[in-house]
Design a protein that fits this description.
alpha/beta; Nitrilase/N-carbamoyl-D-aminoacid amidohydrolase; 6-stranded mixed beta sheet; 7 helices
Length: 292
Amino acid sequence: MTTEKKRIVRCGLIQCSNPINDESRPVAEIQKAMLEKHIPFIEEAGAKGVQMLCLQEIFNGPYFCPSQDSRWYAAAETVPGPTTEIMQEYAKKYSMVIVVPLYEREMAGVFYNTAAVIDADGTYLGKYRKQHIPQVGGFWEKFFFKPGNGGYPVFETRYGKVGVYICYDRHFPEGARCLGLNGAEIVFNPSATTVGMSQYLWKIEQPAHAVANGYFVGAINRVGTEAPWNLGRFYGTSYFVNPRGETVAQASEDKDELIVADLDFGLIDQVRATWQFFRDRRPDAYDEIVEP
């Protein structure tokens, strides 16, 4: 008789509202306020022994995509760059892996929706660039972001293998499967999504990805409303789901908060020994998926 080995990793998610709901204020001022608002939550995570932490989509600013205003290009920065460097210090201080979603400037006029991944010793491991870019119903992202060009990397961190998917990506199972095939044990999905047509999908798609691929998912959504766009209420409810599709922990709909969960990465082997989805896939029969 064999017993499955437990491998507990303490993980955290931070959901936050924008402290400056005045789009007329300087971009740098708004970003500084949002960064400063996150710092106590990051320190709380460190004090609670969080080993892997993920922030929300474009964490250090509002979700400005309801506009099509080029002033927000000023919010972009290099990755790695100044904000990444700040987060590297916190990662090192608390021996904590941090996933840092940012607006990335690669060169003049070329911008990506990106997440930097930092290891527990403060080492910058690399980045994921959002692959699927929406252009619908107030989410005018093609004005601001170029589609990602870096594939679906999985980052070998001190505590486990981390993949990243960003917001609209979650509607596409193909990339979620690629992250599983590339070895992800947990996939973080930082998002900015409001009450409306996609709210019911929030509760379905990410547990489905976790089940189909036998990994954990950490889903993050911001909270509150953001003027002047008033796209709708960001409904929070950030959560962790295990490889069985079960919700392990969930945040509130309307409160700035850190949620923490102890996730047993040993469960991945147990689940995959039962459901042999990777063994039984038929890539030779899926040609239609990659046809234009």
